[in-house]
Write a structure and sequence with these properties.
Butyryl-CoA Dehydrogenase, subunit A, domain 2; 670 residues; 2 domains; alpha+beta; Butyryl-CoA Dehydrogenase, subunit A, domain 3; 53% helix
Length: 670
Amino acid sequence: MEDTVDHLAHERSKAQFNVEEMKIIWAGSLHALQVSDRIAKLVASDPGFGKENRAVLSRKDLFKSALKKAAYVWKRINELGLSEEETSWLRFYVDELAYDYVHWGMFVPAIKGSATEEQQNKWLPLANTMQIIGTYAQTELGHGSNVRGLETTATFDPVTDEFIIHSPTLTSSKWWPGGLGKVATHAVVYAQLITDGKEYGVNGFLVQIRSLDDHFPLPGITVGDIGMKFGSGAFNSMDNGVLRFDRVRIPRNQMLMRVSKVTREGKYVESNIPKQIIYGAMVYVRQTIVADASIALSRAVCIATRYSAVRRQFGSPQNDQNGNGIETQVIDYKTQQSRLFPLLASAYAFRFVGEWLKWLYTDLIQKLEGNDFSTLPEVHACTAGLKSLTTSAAADGIEESRKLCGGHGYLSSSGLPELYATFVPACTYEGDNVVLLLQVSRFLMKTISQLQSGKKPTGTTAYIGHVEHLIQCGCNVKKAEDWLNLCVILEAFEARAIRLLVACAENLTKFANPLQGFSELSPDLVEAAVAHCQVIVVSKFIEKLQQNIQGIGVKQLLETLCYIYSLNLIHKHLGDFLSTRSITPKQASLASDQLRSLYAKVRPNAIALVDAFNYTDHFLGSVLGSYDGNVYPKLYEEAWKDPLNESVVPDGYHENIRPVLKQQLQNARL
Ligand SMILES: CCCCCCCC/C=C\CCCCCCCCCCC/C=C/C(=O)SCCNC(=O)CCNC(=O)[C@H](O)C(C)(C)COP(=O)(O)OP(=O)(O)OC[C@H]1O[C@@H](n2cnc3c(N)ncnc32)[C@H](O)[C@@H]1OP(=O)(O)O
Ligand SMILES: Cc1cc2nc3c(=O)[nH]c(=O)nc-3n(C[C@H](O)[C@H](O)[C@H](O)COP(=O)(O)OP(=O)(O)OC[C@H]3O[C@@H](n4cnc5c(N)ncnc54)[C@H](O)[C@@H]3O)c2cc1C
């Protein structure tokens, strides 16, 4: 008989804030909550979107199942006439990685960002109706981070008015593009443009790779899948691919020509649009990955928090002297709280910074339409830095959540192993996280050097303009409660960041060769970039608190989470804060005292804070994290579904177990 008891009801009754209002804050608006909730329920109730145990499927079955779901997604979108907003929620809740992620997430944005209006008019209707399926073919076997080092060539032939796309070496083979291996019919291919015997750097080209009639590769094209990836399920439903060109010809007008073009005569012509716009699809996706990080982390934290409230270990004050009675909920252990609650706070922090980053990106797009490119460097630095910071923290946080669930967290049915395996490559794709932080530090060093010429930093670097104050200011905290001041916290973060940045800038001047200096100091530069990105996250959390926040207790809880996020970072990066004298050892110890009180404030609200994510059991896909907390029957039931339990005596018994046992028996008799 099905258990309908809510095992977490008592926990829910302890909440000191309005959960429904918090749901609105998490979703971004009442409208967003209503739409997402409606689509989540639609997905959860449709058997076509049922989640099989992906971990036990063979690669081929996994891939076939992802194809089937992607086709069903497309069918339902069309049948239901879903809007763009509803469609993205649908994909989100279906939660199955397939070629369509790269088609919509990169191929279409690359065309929108780098193609001329005429080219967009031709290609976007085809892509938007999926008459063609595209991928983003930039990375090669030999080069991923170093985009300028790509080896694929696109040589203009003025006789036929065509480009010849060629893979001159093994290392020039395109390697990794999602959806390329088995599905994509087209690709935006990044290649070195050559015309009139001269090289003009990397540009994008729209290339058809498979026949639209029989799906065979077109002449001159070699294409396939690059093989199994990390973990069970996870990215293995995606056909990341390899692609080689043997002098494949495409019409000249399939070069994406918004930024620069090649004329009929073969002349390379640059526009006044910055060349970096061809990297625009990456900026777009990095911004979306920050939102992914908050989702992935909140999902793991939701599972770990609910399970921690259900799981009991060891005695409690209510026990009798024999240790019998109610055991302690593991969420009540202070060590569990000090590991779990900062992750909960980070999930909220990343949600808010992601929301702000989306605004910053939208603002950039509006400015670009008016040929205003002024904010591009800052948007590049923010998207690169925040993508790096949030994905690294989320990946670590998912793994910590697994450990917080003890042994059961290691079971596939906990949902955590696959969540980790699916999310961890976000630290690499769309730019290796260290490489991206080096981009941020390059931008920051430039900002600092421009101070001397009187240029006033703006936006996220505005605090750098207060360098004199921040270099010499001291933190005023004298007792633990003094840390409950957002201005004090923000100033400590700004002081630490600027002191690290200025130290890097000063050290760089000691090198005659700036490039050598940059390389020599790169570990310090990365640390300074992280400190700067943390200033952004903390300040955007604080800005969120200044908005009109409705609902009993909601603002107070968010403030508590903001303090936990910040003070825990101080605790984690204590070396930086102390070595830059941004705080004293005594203040560091007061921050730890304050953190303990903050954890106590979160404790009664923990379950309600994860309920506010509004995740369905279908989306969570975890026997440990289900809403009702009915963990043990679900774990037990799930175990019996494993293919190994289909027979009582396993396949292979007669060949490989019985002979061993027999041997043991004979040895014993001798
Ligand atoms: C689903 C299964 C169930 C499991 C559960 C899962 C649930 C989990 C929940 C959520 C998870 C959701 C997961 C979703 C998954 C989605 C699928 C994702 C698909 C992934 C697709 C990936 C695609 C890719 O990776 S595409 C390839 C990306 N490649 C890179 O990023 C390369 C990185 N390298 C570079 O960007 C550059 O080469 C460089 C910037 C590092 C260096 O370039 P270079 O030109 O040499 O640079 P430099 O000289 O330093 O710079 C020149 C100036 O240009 C400026 N600049 C550089 N880049 C940019 C830019 N992008 N925009 C603007 N400006 C830029 C730079 O600052 C310099 O400026 P300056 O003024 O001269 O200083
Ligand atoms: C799941 C997945 C999906 C992907 N999808 C796509 C796709 O759809 N399309 C596509 O084109 N690509 C895709 N990629 C490729 C991805 O973009 C690259 O792997 C990524 O940009 C990193 O490049 P790399 O592999 O060359 O790493 P490398 O640059 O070789 O990095 C190796 C190591 O070197 C370090 N390093 C490199 N350069 C520097 C430096 N200058 N200073 C200091 N350290 C450095 C890095 O930090 C790292 O530790 C995907 C990758 C993955 C894992």
